[in-house]
Write a structure and sequence with these properties.
about 100 residues, mainly alpha
Length: about 100
Protein backbone atom coordinates (compact mmCIF):
# COMPACT_ATOMS: atom_id res chain seq x y z
CA UNK A 1 0.00 0.00 0.00
CA UNK A 2 2.67 2.61 0.89
CA UNK A 3 4.53 1.77 -2.33
CA UNK A 4 1.54 2.68 -4.50
CA UNK A 5 1.17 6.01 -2.71
CA UNK A 6 4.85 6.68 -3.25
CA UNK A 7 4.58 5.79 -6.93
CA UNK A 8 1.61 8.08 -7.35
CA UNK A 9 3.43 10.86 -5.53
CA UNK A 10 6.49 10.42 -7.74
CA UNK A 11 4.31 10.45 -10.83
CA UNK A 12 2.58 13.59 -9.59
CA UNK A 13 5.90 15.29 -8.95
CA UNK A 14 7.19 14.31 -12.38
CA UNK A 15 3.96 15.45 -13.98
CA UNK A 16 4.12 18.78 -12.15
CA UNK A 17 7.76 19.23 -13.19
CA UNK A 18 6.80 18.67 -16.81
CA UNK A 19 3.66 20.77 -16.59
CA UNK A 20 5.15 23.79 -14.80
CA UNK A 21 7.14 25.21 -17.77
CA UNK A 22 4.12 24.80 -20.04
CA UNK A 23 1.84 26.61 -17.60
CA UNK A 24 4.45 29.34 -17.12
CA UNK A 25 4.77 29.82 -20.89
CA UNK A 26 1.00 30.11 -21.21
CA UNK A 27 0.98 32.73 -18.44
CA UNK A 28 3.75 34.74 -20.14
CA UNK A 29 1.95 34.49 -23.48
CA UNK A 30 -1.23 35.88 -21.89
CA UNK A 31 0.72 38.78 -20.36
CA UNK A 32 2.50 39.53 -23.64
CA UNK A 33 -0.76 39.37 -25.57
CA UNK A 34 -2.42 41.80 -23.18
CA UNK A 35 0.51 44.21 -23.38
CA UNK A 36 0.38 44.09 -27.19
CA UNK A 37 -3.36 44.80 -27.06
CA UNK A 38 -2.73 47.81 -24.81
CA UNK A 39 -0.07 49.02 -27.21
CA UNK A 40 -2.49 48.67 -30.12
CA UNK A 41 -5.32 50.44 -28.31
CA UNK A 42 -3.16 53.36 -27.23
CA UNK A 43 -0.78 53.46 -30.19
CA UNK A 44 -1.62 57.05 -31.14
CA UNK A 45 -1.02 58.25 -27.58
CA UNK A 46 2.30 56.40 -27.40
CA UNK A 47 3.38 57.67 -30.82
CA UNK A 48 2.76 61.30 -29.82
CA UNK A 49 4.83 60.93 -26.66
CA UNK A 50 7.73 58.97 -28.15
CA UNK A 51 7.68 58.71 -31.95
CA UNK A 52 9.98 56.16 -33.62
CA UNK A 53 11.00 54.57 -30.32
CA UNK A 54 10.66 50.87 -29.61
CA UNK A 55 8.71 50.61 -26.39
CA UNK A 56 9.55 48.05 -23.75
CA UNK A 57 6.77 46.26 -21.91
CA UNK A 58 7.40 48.34 -18.78
CA UNK A 59 7.13 51.54 -20.87
CA UNK A 60 3.80 50.41 -22.30
CA UNK A 61 2.43 49.62 -18.84
CA UNK A 62 3.66 52.92 -17.35
CA UNK A 63 2.26 54.97 -20.21
CA UNK A 64 -1.06 53.12 -19.97
CA UNK A 65 -1.31 53.90 -16.26
CA UNK A 66 -0.52 57.57 -16.93
CA UNK A 67 -3.10 57.73 -19.71
CA UNK A 68 -5.80 56.10 -17.58
CA UNK A 69 -5.09 58.50 -14.71
CA UNK A 70 -5.42 61.47 -17.08
CA UNK A 71 -8.69 60.12 -18.43
CA UNK A 72 -10.03 59.63 -14.91
CA UNK A 73 -9.15 63.21 -13.97
CA UNK A 74 -10.74 64.59 -17.15
CA UNK A 75 -13.83 62.50 -16.56
CA UNK A 76 -14.26 63.82 -13.01
CA UNK A 77 -13.74 67.39 -14.29
CA UNK A 78 -16.50 66.90 -16.85
CA UNK A 79 -18.74 65.53 -14.16
CA UNK A 80 -18.20 68.66 -12.05
CA UNK A 81 -18.89 70.86 -15.07
CA UNK A 82 -22.07 68.96 -15.78
CA UNK A 83 -23.15 69.34 -12.16
CA UNK A 84 -22.46 73.09 -12.27
CA UNK A 85 -24.49 73.31 -15.47
CA UNK A 86 -27.43 71.46 -13.92
CA UNK A 87 -27.28 73.62 -10.78
CA UNK A 88 -27.24 76.79 -12.87
CA UNK A 89 -30.08 75.52 -15.03
CA UNK A 90 -32.16 74.68 -11.95
CA UNK A 91 -31.56 78.12 -10.40
CA UNK A 92 -32.45 79.80 -13.68
CA UNK A 93 -35.60 77.69 -13.97
CA UNK A 94 -36.64 78.63 -10.41
CA UNK A 95 -36.12 82.32 -11.15
CA UNK A 96 -38.24 82.05 -14.30
CA UNK A 97 -41.01 80.32 -12.31
CA UNK A 98 -40.83 83.03 -9.62
CA UNK A 99 -40.98 85.72 -12.28
CA UNK A 100 -44.08 84.23 -13.89
Amino acid sequence: FPTSICLNTVRCRDWNKLRKPVVEKMRRDRINSSIEQLKGLLETVFHKQQPNVKLEKADILEMTVTYLRQQTLQSSTLTRSEMDYKDGYSRCFEEVIDFL
